[in-house]
C-alpha cells in the first residue's frame, strides 16, 4: 500500500449558503475572491480565528460569535501530484473525518457525497487521476443547520433540552450545545485526508478474538480478508506467528476463499487483564499470506487473549436482587473509571490532547473508560493506549438524550455507521461493550419502540463484532422495568444525578444501582485557568455574571435553563461549610474541597459495598472547553484537588473508613487485585495525633477485609488520617467524619496533613 497524506494548508472560502456565488468548482476562479488558509485537519472556526476574522472563541462570550457562520457553506481546494504507481493499482481518496454535509469533486468531476462526520469516507479514483499535471480536489461543506431545516419532523422525535437540529445530522451531538459543551456548529476536514493505492496482494482485514480459555491453552479465532488475483485462491495459506514474553505460537492454515475465520490454539497463553488485576499482555503477531511457499504479503498487529462477559439482569429489586457485572477471564472486576467526553469543542485538536489526557486516566488507576454517546468516536490511537494500559472501554454509539428518527433511511444510516465503527475497532482487547446510546431510553414511554437500539444496532453489532456484549441504552430500561412507576430505580445500571445536594444525602447513600455509569459533582477550575477564559472585569462576583453563565456551560447564554449551574458550586459549598465565600480565591478552594470529598466518597461507597456494587464511572476527567464543571482537570490541564483524592482511592489496595453505625466506624482494606497483600497500617486523628487503630493486616485477593472499628459520636467533626505499607511502599488516605457544616479554617489546616500522605501533592497549589 502506498499512501500520500494530503494534510496541511488548503485554500478555503466561506459564503452564506443561501447567497453563495459558487455552485461548482469552476466558479471558484471567477466568483469566490481571495481564499483563506484552511488547515487540514482543522475546523473553519479555528481558521477564522487564525485569519483574524474572529477572536479566541473560548474567551469571554466570544463563542456566541460563531452563530452567523452556522448558515455558511465552505469550499476547500488543493492540488496534488499522483504517484506513478496509482496508474496501475486500485486507488482511493480516503477522508478520515469530514464535518459534515459534503460534496466531492476531482478535476471538476463529481466523486460523490457524504453526510456523516463520525466515520471515514472512501472514493474510488482508479482511472480518474491525472499524471501529466496536478490533480485538483475540491470539497464543499454545506450548512448542517440548513440541512436539518429541510428534514421532516414528527412528535415521535425529540431532543432533550438541546438543539433539535442534531436529531437528523450525524455529527457529534454536543456541537449543537450541551450542558458540558458550547454550541459550536463548526465545519471542517477534521481528520486526515489521504490518497491510498492498494497492492495487488493485500491483507485487507484482520481480527483476532478469543473463542475459549482453558487452564493451559486458549483457542483463538482469526477473521481474515485478503485481496489477491482470483486464480491464486485455490492455493492460499495463512501463516500466523506471535509472541508475548515466553509465550509463542506459529501455525499455518489453508485459506479457501478471500474471507474466512481460522482457528488455532495458543498453549500456556499470556492473558490480557484490566489495570490492577494483572498485566495487559499483548501479543506481537505477524500474519503472512502464502501461495504455495511464496509470501505474497504480510501484516503485523497486536492482540490480546482474554474472555470478557457482562453478567446482567433486566431489573433489580429487594425481592429480586439483580446484577451488572463485568467478568474478565472468569474473574469478577470492580470497575473504576471516568466518562470520556469531548477533548475539544473543535475535534481537529483532539489528537494533540489525547496522549496527555489518557496518561492521566492511567495515572488515576482507571480500569474502565465509558465513551459517552454525545461525542465523536475516538480514533485507533485511543484504543491502542487502552490496550497497552489495561483500560476497558465501554463504547456508546453516537446518540444521546433524544428520540431519533425511526425512518428506514435513518435506520440504514445508523446501521452503516455502526458497522463501519465496529469493523474499525473490533480488534482491540480493551473494547468491552457496545452500548446503543446515552439516556435515550429515558425519553420513551415504551423504550422497546426504539427500533434503532432494539433492532438496527444489535443486528449491526452481530454482523461486524458478534463476540462482544451489547447493551441497548445507558441506562437500559428493559420491558420488565418499564412497567414499574420508579422504572429507573429498578435498573441495575444507573446515572446518578438527582438533586446534586450534599454528597452524603440519601440520594447518594441509598441508591439501588449495582453499576453507576454516571455520577458527578461540581468543582471550580484553578484561578490561573479562569483568568484565561474570563475577562478581568468579570472574574468576580459569580452571580449575575454573563461570562460565568456562558462557561457554566449554558449554550444559549442568559436565556438558558442551565444557568442554574453557576450557583450550583456555591450551593454545594454552603452544604459542606455553611458559608458563602465573598472572594474568588476562597470560593475556588472551598468548591474544590467539596468536589474532591464528593468524588472520593462516591468511589469509596462503591468499593465498600463490593460486590453488591460492581462499578463506578464518575463524570468526568477532562474538560473539552474552559468551563465550571464536574471535571477534575480543567481545559488548560489544571488539576483540581479531586484529581489527587481520586488517585488515592482508585489504587488497587486502599484503606477506607465506612460511615458511622452503632457509634462506630469500620476500617476496611479493599483489595481490587488478584494478589493477596500483607503489610502494616495506622489510623490517627489529624488534630490530636492519637492513634485510633493500627497493626498488621492480611488482605485476600479481590475482596474487602474489615481490620477493626473506631468508636465515634454523631456529633463529631473530625479528620482521620491513615497510611499503610506494602512491600516497602507507603500509601495514604483520609476520612472526613461528621455532618456539615464543617469549619473551612479547620479543613485548611487538615489539608496540609492530607497532602503530606502518599502519594503527596502541594497543598499551596490547590485552586491556584
Strand content: 25-35%
Largest beta sheet: what is the strand line-up?
Answer: 29-28-26-25-24-32-31-30
The level 1 CATH classification of the largest domain is: Alpha Beta
Mind telling me which CATH architecture of the largest domain this is?
Alpha-Beta Barrel
Q: Considering DSSP H and I runs of 4 or more, what fraction of the residues is helical?
A: 10-25%
Radius of gyration: 28 Å
Number of helical regions = 15
How many individual domains? 4
Explain what the structure shows.
The model has no long low-confidence stretch (mean pLDDT 96). The longest helix is centred in the C-terminal third of the chain and has 25 residues, at 584-608. The chain has 15 helices and 39 strands. The chain is α+β, with helices and mostly antiparallel strands and 768 residues long. It has 4 domains: 2-193, Jelly Rolls, CATH 2.60.120.260; 202-303, Immunoglobulins (Immunoglobulin-like, Sandwich), CATH 2.60.40.10; 308-526 and 600-648, TIM Barrel, CATH 3.20.20; 651-737, Immunoglobulin-like (Sandwich). The chain is globular, with a radius of gyration of 28 Å. An 8-stranded parallel sheet has the order 29-28-26-25-24-32-31-30, covered by helices on one side. The protein has a 6-stranded antiparallel sheet with strand order 3-2-4-10-7-8. Helix 6 runs parallel beside helix 7, helix 12 crosses helix 13 and helix 13 (584-608) runs parallel beside helix 14.
